[in-house]
Amino acid sequence: MTVLDAPDIVATQVAARVAAADWAAVATGLDADGCALLPPLLSPGECAEIATLYERPELFRSTIDMARYRFGSGQYRYFDRPFPEPVARLRAELYPRLLPIARDWWSRLGREPEWPDSIEEWLEICHAAGQRRPTPILLRYRAGDWNALHRDLYGDKVFPLQVVINLSAPGEDHTGGEFVLVEQRPRAQSRATTNLIPQGRGLVFTTRDRPIRSARGWSAAPMRHGVSTIRSGERFALGLVFHDAT
C-alpha cells in the first residue's frame, strides 16, 4: 500500500501530524527569525514515495531547468491538478494553522489581511485575479546543484507564509543543501539564517517580507530564500505555496 493507494489513511495521518505541532512556538520562531521548523509531517516511507513521483511527468504541469533561467542549478516540477492526496492534504491542513500568523503580521504592518478562512475561498480569489495555475512543487537537486535567492511571487495575490518539506535524509541521501533565508534589514546589513531540514520535517518561512520592530513602530523586512550547494548525493523537496500563479 502506498500514499496514493490509501488517501483516507493519509488524510487522517497528515491532519494529526499538523495538529500536533506547537503552533504558538512556530509563531514565536517566525517572529524571531522569519522561519520555524515543524514536527515530522511525513514518514520516511512517505517521503520516498512522494520523491518517486518525480518520474511520473503526467502528474505535473511544467518542468523548470534552473540553469536555463539562471535560477541556480537543478530542476523542479509544478504539480498539476488533481494533486496526490498527501500534497493536497498538507496544503489544506497547514493553511488554517498559518492563517492567524499571517493576519497578525499584516495587522502589525497596518495592512488589511485579505485571506478568508478556507484555502478553497482564497484560491477562488486568486483565480478571479487571473492566478489559476497550481504552485505545489517537487524539487530535485543533485551534486553541484543549488537554488538562488528568490521569492515565490506569482502575481498580486500572495500568502505571506509557505512550507518546504525535505524528502531526503541529510547525511545519508545528501550532504549540503541547507535551506538559506536572507533578511534585508532597514539601514543595516542583511542577516542570513540556515537550516538543514531533517527528512519528513517541514520548515515554514516568509514568502516576501515580515514585520520587525523599528524606531517608528513596525516595518516590513524583505526576505529571500534559496538552497546551498549539494555537495554529494541527491535531495528531493516538496514546496507548498498557498497562492496560485498567473
Task: Write the topology of this structure.
Elements: H1 7-19, H2 23-33, E1 35-40, H3 44-52, E2 60-65, E3 72-73, E4 75-79, H4 85-108, H5 119-128, E5 137-142, E6 146-150, E7 161-166, E8 174-176, E9 179-183, E10 191-195, E11 201-206, E12 209-214, E13 217-227, E14 230-240
Antiparallel strand pairs: 1-11, 2-4, 3-6, 4-5, 5-14, 6-13, 7-11, 7-14, 8-14, 9-10, 9-13, 12-13
Question: What this model shows, in words?
Answer:
With 246 residues, the protein is α+β, with helices and mostly antiparallel strands. It has a single domain (7-240), classed as q2cbj1_9rhob like domain (Jelly Rolls). The protein is built from five helices and 14 strands. The protein has helices spanning 7-19, 23-33, 44-52, 85-108, 119-128; strands at residues 35-40, 60-65, 72-73, 75-79, 137-142, 146-150, 161-166, 174-176, 179-183, 191-195, 201-206, 209-214, 217-227, 230-240. The strands form two sheets. Strands 1, 2, 4, 5, 7, 8, 11 and 14 form an eight-stranded antiparallel beta sheet that branches. Strands 3, 6, 9, 10, 12 and 13 form a six-stranded antiparallel beta sheet that branches.
